[in-house]
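Q: I'm building a small set of examples for a reading group on sequence design. Run inverse folding on the following structure and report the sequence directly after it, with nothing in between.
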């Protein structure tokens, strides 16, 4: 097991966004979390990354990390690619990528891997990131996360705002990362894509896990079809 959250909570002042969530990610596994807007998906990811206040227990590679600051979690290989990409628009592509290796990873080998995975970024490495298309910015955000040599890669809504053809490209990239043996925890609005991709899945509703199971099983579940797949 790579990651386990037990009775996990996330607070925003007096507001409890996550209410005792239990999830896990095993070695070489892709896990997805789906749910409606406001269900607590991003709170889950930010809590696991140490960005927001949380409670309960988080076990990463056999050690409890609840008290670790976010940058120390990155240094141990727990890496988040955040919602909204969060690139630095005034810096060029290569500079953005190099920032991903600030706490961990080799800049030279990281750049080689990122440019091999995303040739478009290599073509535009001297261009200011703010002038990239939405799809290119998402490539950059994923590439920057990979610069930290993740031992667990968490991605929050990587297909958000992208055209369908670019969504396909994002999931093709995730399949490559999965094939390379990187465990993945994915929060995703495109439930069909996410459940088709994942080994296992959790469904969040109002800050609680209401269903879990194999991705393929939830994809064919009538309740899931009706509530989340628009079928």
């Amino acid at each position: 097991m790579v990651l386990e959250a037990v009775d996990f909570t996330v607070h925003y002042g007096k507001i409890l966004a996550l209410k005792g969530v239990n999830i896990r990610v095993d070695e070489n596994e892709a896990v997805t979390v789906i749910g409606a807007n406001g269900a607590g998906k991003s709170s889950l990811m930010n809590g696991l990354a140490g960005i927001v206040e949380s409670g309960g227990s988080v076990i990463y590679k056999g050690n409890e990390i609840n008290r670790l600051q976010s940058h120390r979690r990155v240094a141990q290989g727990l890496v988040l690619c955040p919602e909204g990409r969060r690139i630095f628009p005034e810096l060029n592509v290569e500079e953005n990528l190099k920032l991903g290796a600030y706490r961990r990873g080799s800049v030279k080998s990281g750049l080689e891997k990122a440019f091999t995975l995303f040739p478009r970024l290599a073509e535009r490495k001297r261009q200011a990131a703010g002038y990239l298309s939405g799809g290119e910015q998402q490539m950059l955000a994923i590439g920057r996360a990979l610069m930290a040599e993740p031992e667990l890669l968490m991605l929050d809504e990587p297909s958000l705002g992208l055209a369908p053809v670019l969504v396909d490209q994002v999931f093709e990239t995730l399949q490559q990362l999965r094939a390379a043996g990187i465990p993945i925890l994915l929060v995703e609005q495109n439930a069909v894509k996410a459940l088709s991709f994942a080994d296992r899945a959790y469904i969040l509703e109002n800050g609680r896990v209401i269903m879990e199971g194999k991705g393929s099983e939830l994809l064919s579940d009538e309740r899931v079809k009706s509530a989340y797949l628009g079928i």
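Strands lie at 3-12, 15-25, 30-35, 54-60, 63-64, 78-81, 152-156, 184-187, 200-205, 208-214.
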